[in-house]
């Protein structure tokens, strides 16, 4: 797939992450869901990174997660140029979402509860294929997307698990996805995410 880099949105220890737009079409293709330009996320290895298997690891693990409907959809894995091209998820990191005052004012208990059930479902799906993400607990590898439902006149919040570079395949029963999710939201009394989650769900749990 031919593409042009638009801007860099992150720089990790071993990779760069870019927003890119496809090239080679006369008309700008639009996303039918929200009218945005046809953009993708490019994750490529850093020149000085000692880890040169980014495409192999991220591509393999994300493709495996995609097989059960989890994670951004893989568009291309290039082993020669060492990059992974994937769906662009328009959202904010879960940690930032929960710490924003909009979470307190605009997100209802019921909406948050439904969000958590969706996230749990994704953790269970990853467990079903023995894929352990290994980096869920901090809340920085989960994106939150908001969608307004015209029929119900409510806003629904959807999780997307990202960054599978350090994911591993475990033996059955040894994955840690649900454990990390539960620890982040409920079991760590000193964690701000857990504190705010308990406050939000007080009327339900």
Characteristics of this structure?
single chain; 205 residues; alpha+beta; five-stranded antiparallel sheet; 6 helices; 10 strands
What is the element string, with H for helices and E for strands?
EEEHEEEHHHEEEEHH
Beginning-to-end CA distance, first to last residue: 48 Å
Provide mean pLDDT, rounded. Answer: 88
**Rough shape?**
globular
- Estimated structural class: alpha+beta
List unreliable stretches of 5+ residues. 25-35
Strand content of the residues, in percent? 25-35%
- Radius of gyration, in angstroms, nearest whole number: 18 Å
**Relative helix content:** 25-40%
Number of strands: 10
Strand numbers in spatial order across the main sheet: 1-2-3-5-4
What features would you describe in this structure?
32% of the residues lie in helices and 27% in strands. With 205 residues, the chain is α+β, with helices and mostly antiparallel strands. The strands form three sheets. It has a five-stranded antiparallel beta sheet with strand order 1-2-3-5-4, with helices on one face.
Question: What is this entry, summarized?
Answer:
The chain is an alpha+beta fold and 205 residues long.
Helix and strand topology:
Elements: E1 3-11, E2 15-22, E3 39-45, H1 54-66, E4 74-78, E5 83-87, E6 92-93, H2 94-99, H3 101-106, H4 109-128, E7 131-132, E8 142-149, E9 154-161, E10 168-169, H5 177-187, H6 192-200
Antiparallel strand pairs: 1-2, 2-3, 3-5, 4-5, 6-8, 7-10, 8-9
């Amino acid at each position: 797939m031919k593409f042009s880099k638009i801007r860099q949105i992150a720089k990790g220890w071993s990779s760069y992450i870019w927003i890119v737009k496809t090239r080679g079409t006369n008309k700008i293709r639009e996303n039918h869901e929200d009218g945005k330009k046809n953009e993708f996320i490019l994750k490529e290895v850093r020149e000085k990174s000692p880890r040169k298997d980014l495409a192999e690891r991220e591509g393999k693990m994300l493709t495996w997660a995609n097989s059960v409907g989890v994670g951004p959809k893989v568009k291309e894995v290039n082993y020669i140029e060492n990059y992974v091209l994937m769906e662009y998820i328009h959202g904010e990191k879960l940690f930032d979402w929960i710490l924003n005052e909009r979470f307190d004012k605009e997100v209802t208990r019921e909406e948050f509860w439904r969000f958590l059930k969706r996230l749990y479902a994704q953790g269970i799906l990853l467990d079903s294929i023995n894929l352990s993400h290994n980096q869920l607990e901090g809340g920085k590898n989960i994106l939150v997307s908001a969608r307004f439902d015209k029929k119900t006149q409510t806003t629904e919040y959807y999780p997307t698990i990202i960054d599978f570079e350090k994911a591993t395949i475990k033996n059955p029963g040894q994955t840690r996805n649900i454990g990390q999710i539960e620890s982040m939201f409920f079991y760590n009394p000193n964690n701000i995410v857990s504190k705010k989650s308990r406050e939000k769900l007080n009327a339900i749990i």
